[in-house]
Amino acid sequence: MSEVYERDSFFWAYVKWHYTQGLRELFGVAYNFLWFIAHFFSFKLLLKTLFVPWKKFSEHCGKKLNPGSFSSGFIINGLTRTAGFIVKVAVLTVGFVAYVLVSVLTFIVFIIWVLAPVILLGCIVLAITFFVA
Questions:
Q1: Is the pTM of this model over 0.90?
Q2: Residue 88, Cβ neighbours under 10 Å: how many?
């Protein structure tokens, strides 16, 4: 790799690095952030267990058909499933917002990264014209 930089001038070596390896590393970092968010919030597992009772709390009815036991089990199981659904949807929402935020920030950083050398050269030219004129 250093042979390439020895043949080229500093400017061209920087431009090659900036638009090849630099962009590759930028997207590698973005991929790592998105992978972390997807696994930290366990999107796949939460979607798979969306209607499972919260912390697997559930009330079992006895083997005998008792209306009181059945209704209390039905209410408790309904409440724990509702609580589990609400908590999991909240976690999924926070995870989705984080995923979208990282994606948008990656796009913004990409635009800045691509335009940074052009902006820098423009600032230098503007400064030179300011002091010369």
A1: no
A2: 19
